[in-house]
Structure to design on (1562 residues):
């Protein structure tokens, strides 16, 4: 059968359209893949890790829609449940519940169920304690109590109120007691909370983790950011980790006071430990004797989209951690298995809350989608076959001495609840016994220091300051204990007179984790001295976590040390490196003067000079900029690249802040004849920006001269456009006219758009008419899309023009890729190019049903993957799979497991119908009439950064923003227009398989997925002919590398590698490379599918390529470059990274676009 | 004694005239008034307890008045808490849009706690913000009432010692009063509430964290709010002389001509709702008690029935001295009224501050904006409860019978 072009013929549409009236959207009901709700069928679908088994602990109708759960000290499981989610209906009674499940017989099955509380509105968190339970009830944090012993709450206290509810899957959640006796709870990115406390009002806009001590009502923000952090737990040493139900970076290591993904208004964040991961919900650090040893200390979390309970092995990595995914605890293709919370139980088993729903979330899927389940829910229990369970501890009735003994238990559960019960007994009863217990501990016990730490935490839980024990633990042999003690000190510092002395010792600690804690603890001590002490950590090696901690501390303490520095009261021990770090961290104008003084005194070390000067240019006034300008023009000895970057920094200052260097600037003209092309070009542009009319003649001359290089001509033309005025217009009109080469005409027309838009439109229309075949005029169209009124002027100018069909197609594609809504321009382009109108892309219910059926029956995922990878389909330009690919759209690694087929089809055909959170574009109009469309990456007080459809980050000064509107999706409409129906079916089938068990599942192996391949440009050929293949290993600017991606199974097909046809001896070759980011140095193993036809360089060193190789890598980023003999090698490239046992190495494969 | 009572003995009719004329000028609500409450948690939580609103509603039971609560935890005169995704200026705009859309005739504003933590240094900025807020509110032509912040209670350690913060609060209270006086707006001083100590732990705390009123706190402060607003809420005192004469205060009494111990009582306005459960005091203040005196009874026990239902029994001497009525249909009715008000407030909360605003009205409305049609469906539900409130706020007449208890044989 000849493939029919999609969409179907008009005749069919007519029929379908009439059907659509009878079958409105609700016809989607028929599409539902509603599974049989029998829990046993669900259980049987589980593929469980070797040695484990799953039993049903509790299920509907005992509970419906569990959201969060926590045990109490008696071993009862408290579950927050909501049938109202996602949105209360008018007239509906909010009657959501807190359920308490009890396994009175200890057989692993709940036999007693109580409704502790009802009448709640989407309760998203519950944590028992203080004689009742803390409950998240939308805007409020409640404490509910049962005072009559009826099992039902009869007292209700609003503890805190003012939590935002802008999104009901973001509201107050993830309640956890910390080892410190504080209650931790989270909120997600759309939420803005304003909480009144007796200590003052606390505000948090965006995601974050709160820290709260109920008895003092002290509420603070523990960390900021993460998009939807529905998992947070502490390890045995009190370090905490969080997961993100909307982020893509796996496990996050939480540093007090730090900012993470999507924190509004911050310049820096800490990244997660597993970029390219799917989203995770819930989290538990495992412990205890019931589990095999290799599982203890692991983190479990839930890929609720992919129906998986995932396992990560956590290891220390310098001052932070590394986490590596292992095979799942549970995986299934059951479409309603939605693990959302996970906790260890009193018996040492693992408990999983299964929200049970074929439909998740409510942003993309209608609140009232009939496929939403509102009544079911399960709690699963996972045990290890053949290992005894832990005897359930009896804590509530235990004597204080026995409770203290419980602090030595190997199970985190027992120690945690032992401490909770001690805390609730109160200081008066516990402290004397505790002091005695500490005295009686055996210092030779291998766990001695951990016991001391538990005692310290018990004091902290009781809110009793114990400076002597604190000082002891800060000097423990075990660095974990020292780090934890420093964190306790950060809370007690007001009561510990020698706090700075204690912290100074820990800033100089031998272990980086302790140094990091000390640096963050110092941020709590409001003084210049604390900042000086913190910066001493720079004298030892600094990794990325510690670097962040130092940066954040320098900023937190800025109000104390910066004025003192201006007054000459602090000098950071005379160590310039410390001072520069602190000033760079501040990144505001007040840091400029001290930096300039250092420059003038010649005190800046050479390797830091460029950074410092760039910062001065970014923040300084005319005098400071003059200093930078003088260095650019005066010092011929400075490398040209360095000078170019400084000149560009000065250009940014002019563009973004309107600041120019003071004094005579005409010297910049001398740079126009520099030997270095980039420096010449930067000079040409800045001449325009600085409006140096005297140099206009020179610019015009270079713009016209055919012998100037293309880059330099473009710069000269840009410079002229910036100079502006009639003279510029005339020159640009002339250059855009017929006499010049087409590329130069394009440059001129684009530049002209900034000077005289109507004139530019006329030139552009002419250019589009005259585009020679093989030339790409898309930049011309883009220039008008990026200007106010540009679309209209270009549309008008195209009237009565004739374009070639190819040019018209390029134009149409450019408009669509811009994400802008410009129907008139699309019509004009189509008309001028004689293109036929595309059919409507909205499917009728019947067409949709047919298409879904065909996807299931006829779709071939392998063919679909080929369509996905096709360059003209542009999928990978914006979407990554497991972190490899563009970042404009969501990562698709588990899209098939989370989204129904109808949703996938609609997302392709109507990208604006449902947009994943965080992928809404903003359309910004600047005061100079520019239009920028992109996804918000971050926003500070001064700058808004968007990621545009080309995956480029664009910074816009906030003061230049005239208008900011919400745009739709950046995914262009009509992408599927060029697909045959069969291709569309294959593509959807491929997407629907992603993340499901099978060949397209999310893989745990660490595979190279993002490669860079050398483009066979003329200069690349030139270089490779002249020199050896080894010259491909440097970062030679003559070489262009573009991204190439492994397929989902992890192999890079060789047809994705551009070919260099060399001479006979050297054959046909391709060059590919990737990077390894090594945070802790050491040995790692690389495994290739085959070493045939490969030559390998690690950085610049040739290394023999073998199927299995062990490399010893120092910390830093390393590039592995392969020359692939395409005559000899037939297999694609597959490269897996493995650990070498005993090696300390922590390595991450660099992914991304 | 500022009260002027005119008792018409013998006819059983009582006419109550308002006293404290100056105070009465403070705020008088009229038929058709639309009262909007704005402010921080003090205001926001009132809608969950409703004692203030119940008092105003039952006092003006012959008038159609609606109440809309726009309080928001953490809010300031600058609009900080309503900023949502924007700045405080956006929050201020949001408040303005909502207040103006309600076309209020009366606005009750409660601000100052959050601002006061900035102390003296923050005062000029606060006053500037307050002026801007009041100007914005005044554009509606509504009468504006300003509430002071509360004194922070000292509930003992480990909660913070409020001594220093109370100096700030007092400073902000004074500043608010000055502004109110200058503008001629009524001012409700909640700072020095009756029964509150200025030092040490109060015997009957009104808050559970020092700063936020509990149910009891709202119940107890209703009297202050009412007094400060100039509401004349009469004491309820009914006296029968056993000879066919009655005197009543806060109620109209009609005696049965044939039976001097049988009479109809219609309250002038509904009583104060019952003490909330687990209040730190067991009985209401004497002023708020409903006292029935029946003199001249022959010795023996007498049962009081209201509408045929037994309420209590007491001896003749006790009836002569006055018996406190803590149960009765009037008290049931006012509690029903309060519950209806709470239901209305809950519905209105879903209406004006719905969950998922991001999807319904915000930058993701192109996805779920269609569901915004549900939000207006709260309007008829609110209107229905308002009808119920209108019925419940009106006192009705009840049959009281005092019946001699027969000696047990």
């Amino acid at each position: 059968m000849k493939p029919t072009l999609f969409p179907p013929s008009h005749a069919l549409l007519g029929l379908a359209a009439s059907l659509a009236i009878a079958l409105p959207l609700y016809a989607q009901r028929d599409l539902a893949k509603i599974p049989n709700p029998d829990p046993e069928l669900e259980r049987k679908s589980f593929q469980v890790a070797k040695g484990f088994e799953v039993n049903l602990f509790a299920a509907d109708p005992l509970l419906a829609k569990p959201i969060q759960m926590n045990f109490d000290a008696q071993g009862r499981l408290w579950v927050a449940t909501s049938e109202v989610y996602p949105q209360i209906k008018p007239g509906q009674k909010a009657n959501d519940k807190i359920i308490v499940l009890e396994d009175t017989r200890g057989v692993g099955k709940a036999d007693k169920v109580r409704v502790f509380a009802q009448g709640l509105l989407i309760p998203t968190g519950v944590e028992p304690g203080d004689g009742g339970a803390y409950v998240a009830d939308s805007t409020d944090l409640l404490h509910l109590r049962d005072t009559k012993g009826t099992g039902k709450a009869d007292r209700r206290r609003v503890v805190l109120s003012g939590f935002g509810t802008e999104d009901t899957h973001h509201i107050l959640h993830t309640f956890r007691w910390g080892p410190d006796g504080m209650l931790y709870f989270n909120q997600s990115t759309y939420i803005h909370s304003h909480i009144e406390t007796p200590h003052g009002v606390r505000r948090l806009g965006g995601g974050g983790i709160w820290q709260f001590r109920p008895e003092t009502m002290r509420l603070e923000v523990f960390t900021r950011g993460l998009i939807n952090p529905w998992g947070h737990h502490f390890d045995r040493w009190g370090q905490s980790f969080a997961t993100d139900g909307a982020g893509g970076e796996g496990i996050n290591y939480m540093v007090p006071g730090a900012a993470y993904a999507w924190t509004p208004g911050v310049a820096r964040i800490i990244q997660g430990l597993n970029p390219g991961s799917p989203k995770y919900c819930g989290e538990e650090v495992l412990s205890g004797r019931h589990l095999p040893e290799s599982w203890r200390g692991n983190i479990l979390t839930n890929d609720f989209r992919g129906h998986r309970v995932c396992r990560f092995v956590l290891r220390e990595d310098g001052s932070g951690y590394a986490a590596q995914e292992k095979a799942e605890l549970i995986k299934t293709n059951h479409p309603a298995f939605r693990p959302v919370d996970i906790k260890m139980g009193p018996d040492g088993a693992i408990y999983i809350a299964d929200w049970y729903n074929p439909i998740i979330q409510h942003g993309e899927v209608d609140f009232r989608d009939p496929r939403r389940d509102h009544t079911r829910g399960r709690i699963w229990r996972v045990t290890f076959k053949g290992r005894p369970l832990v005897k359930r501890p009896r804590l509530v009735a235990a004597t204080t001495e026995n409770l203290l003994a419980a602090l030595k238990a190997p199970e985190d559960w027992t120690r945690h609840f032992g401490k909770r019960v001690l805390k609730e007994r109160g200081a008066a009863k516990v402290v004397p016994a505790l002091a005695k217990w500490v005295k009686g501990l055996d210092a030779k016990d291998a766990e001695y220091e951990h016991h001391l730490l538990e005692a310290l935490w018990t004091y902290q839980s009781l809110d009793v300051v114990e400076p002597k024990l604190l000082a002891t633990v800060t000097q423990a042999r075990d660095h974990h204990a020292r780090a934890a003690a420093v964190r306790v000190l950060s809370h007690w510092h007001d009561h510990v007179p020698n706090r700075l002395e204690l912290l100074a010792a820990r800033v100089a600690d031998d272990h980086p984790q302790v140094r990091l804690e000390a640096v963050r603890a110092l941020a709590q001590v409001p003084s210049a001295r604390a900042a000086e002490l913190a910066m001493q950590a720079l004298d030892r090696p600094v990794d990325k976590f510690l670097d962040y901690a130092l940066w954040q501390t320098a900023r937190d303490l800025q109000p104390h040390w910066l004025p003192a520095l201006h007054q000459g009261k602090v000098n950071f021990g005379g160590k310039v490196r410390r001072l520069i770090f602190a000033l760079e961290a501040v990144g505001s104008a007040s840091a400029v003067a001290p930096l300039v003084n250092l420059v003038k005194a010649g005190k800046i070390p050479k390797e830091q000079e460029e950074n410092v000067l760039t910062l001065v240019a970014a923040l300084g006034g005319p005098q400071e900029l003059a200093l930078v300008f003088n260095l650019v023009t005066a010092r011929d000895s400075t490398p040209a690249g360095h000078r170019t970057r400084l000149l560009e920094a000065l250009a940014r200052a002019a563009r973004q802040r309107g600041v120019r260097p003071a004094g005579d600037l005409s010297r910049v003209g001398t740079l126009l004849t520099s030997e270095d092309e980039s420096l010449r070009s930067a000079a040409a542009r800045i001449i325009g920006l600085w409006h140096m009319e005297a140099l206009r003649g020179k610019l015009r001359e270079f713009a016209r001269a055919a012998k100037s290089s293309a880059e330099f001509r473009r710069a000269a033309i840009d410079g002229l456009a910036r100079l502006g005025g009639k003279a510029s217009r005339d020159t640009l009109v002339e250059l855009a006219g017929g006499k010049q080469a087409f590329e130069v005409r394009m440059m001129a027309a684009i530049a002209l758009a900034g000077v005289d838009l109507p004139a530019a439109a006329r030139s552009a229309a002419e250019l589009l008419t005259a585009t020679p075949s093989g030339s790409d005029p898309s930049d011309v169209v883009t220039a008008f899309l990026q200007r106010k009124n540009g679309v209209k002027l270009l549309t008008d100018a195209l009237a009565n023009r004739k374009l070639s069909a190819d040019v018209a197609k390029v134009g149409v594609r450019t408009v669509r890729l811009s994400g802008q809504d410009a129907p008139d321009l699309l019509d004009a382009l189509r008309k001028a190019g004689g293109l036929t109108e595309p059919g409507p892309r909205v499917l009728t219910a019947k067409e949709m049903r047919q298409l879904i059926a065909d996807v299931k029956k006829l779709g071939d995922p392998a063919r679909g993957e080929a369509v996905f990878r096709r360059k003209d389909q542009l999928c990978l330009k914006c979407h990554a799979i497991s972190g490899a690919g563009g970042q404009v759209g969501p990562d698709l690694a588990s899209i098939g497991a989370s989204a129904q087929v109808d949703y996938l089809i609609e997302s392709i055909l109507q990208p604006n119908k449902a947009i994943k959170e965080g992928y809404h574009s903003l359309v910004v109009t600047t005061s100079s009439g520019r239009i920028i469309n992109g996804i918000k990456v971050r926003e500070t007080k001064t700058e808004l950064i968007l990621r545009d459809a080309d995956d480029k980050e664009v910074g816009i000064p906030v003061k230049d923003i005239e208008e900011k509107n919400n745009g739709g999706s950046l995914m262009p409409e009509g992408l599927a227009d060029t697909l045959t129906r069969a291709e569309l079916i294959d593509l959807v089938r491929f997407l629907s398989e992603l993340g499901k068990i099978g060949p397209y599942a999310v893989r745990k192996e660490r595979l190279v997925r993002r490669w860079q391949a050398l483009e066979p440009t003329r200069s690349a050929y030139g270089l490779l002919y002249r020199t050896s293949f080894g010259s491909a290993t440097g970062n030679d600017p003559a070489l262009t590398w573009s991204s190439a991606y492994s397929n989902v199974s992890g192999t890079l097909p060789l047809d994705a590698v551009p070919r260099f046809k060399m001479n006979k001896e050297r054959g046909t070759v391709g060059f590919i490379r990737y990077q390894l980011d090594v945070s802790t140095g050491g040995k790692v193993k690389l495994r290739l599918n085959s070493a045939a036809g490969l030559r390998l360089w690690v950085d610049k060193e040739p290394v023999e390529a073998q199927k299995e190789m062990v490399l010893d890598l120092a910390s830093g980023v390393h590039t592995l470059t392969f020359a692939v003999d395409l005559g000899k090698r037939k297999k694609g490239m597959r490269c897996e990274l493995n650990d070498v046992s005993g090696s300390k190495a922590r390595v991450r494969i660099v992914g991304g676009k | 004694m500022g009260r002027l009572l005119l008792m018409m003995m013998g006819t059983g009719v009582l006419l109550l005239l308002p006293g404290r004329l100056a105070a009465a000028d403070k705020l008088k609500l009229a038929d058709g008034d639309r009262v909007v409450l704005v402010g921080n948690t003090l205001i926001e939580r009132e809608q969950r307890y409703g004692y203030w609103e119940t008092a105003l509603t039952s006092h003006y039971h012959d008038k159609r008045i609606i109440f809309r609560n726009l309080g928001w935890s953490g809010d300031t005169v600058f609009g900080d808490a309503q900023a949502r995704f924007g700045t405080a200026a956006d929050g201020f705009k949001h408040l303005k849009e909502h207040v103006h859309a309600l076309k209020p005739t009366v606005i009750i504003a409660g601000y100052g706690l959050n601002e006061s933590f900035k102390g003296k240094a923050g005062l000029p900025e606060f006053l500037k913000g307050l002026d801007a807020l009041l100007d914005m509110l005044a554009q509606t032509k509504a009468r504006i009432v300003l509430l002071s912040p509360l004194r922070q209670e000292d509930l003992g350690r480990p909660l913070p010692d409020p001594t220093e913060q109370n100096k700030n609060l007092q400073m902000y209270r004074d500043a608010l009063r000055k502004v109110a006086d200058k503008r001629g707006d009524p001012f409700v001083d909640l700072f020095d509430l009756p029964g509150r100590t200025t030092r040490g732990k109060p015997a009957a705390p009104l808050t559970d964290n020092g700063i936020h009123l509990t149910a009891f706190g709202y119940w107890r402060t209703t009297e202050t709010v009412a007094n400060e607003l100039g509401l004349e809420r009469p004491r309820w005192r009914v006296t029968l002389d056993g000879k066919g004469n009655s005197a009543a205060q806060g109620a109209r009494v009609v005696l049965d001509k044939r039976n001097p111990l049988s009479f109809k009582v219609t309250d002038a306005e509904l009583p104060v709702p019952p003490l909330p459960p687990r209040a730190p005091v067991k009985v209401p203040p004497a002023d708020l008690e409903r006292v029935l005196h029946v003199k001249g009874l022959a010795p023996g026990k007498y049962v009081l029935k209201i509408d045929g239902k037994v309420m209590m029994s007491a001896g003749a001497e006790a009836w002569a001295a006055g018996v406190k009525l803590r149960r009765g249909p009037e008290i049931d009715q006012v509690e029903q009224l309060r519950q209806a008000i709470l239901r209305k407030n809950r519905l209105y909360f879903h209406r004006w501050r719905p969950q998922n605003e991001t999807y319904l009205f915000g930058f993701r409305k192109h996805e779920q904006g269609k569901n915004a049609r549900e939000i207006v469906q709260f309007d008829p539900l609110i209107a229905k409860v308002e009808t119920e409130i209108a019925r419940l706020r009106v006192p009705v007449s009840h049959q009281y019978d005092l019946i001699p208890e027969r000696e047990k044989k």
User: Anything to note?
Assistant: Chain B touches chain A through 50 residues (CB under 8 Å). Residues 5-228 of chain B form a domain with the Rossmann fold fold (CATH 3.40.50.1110).
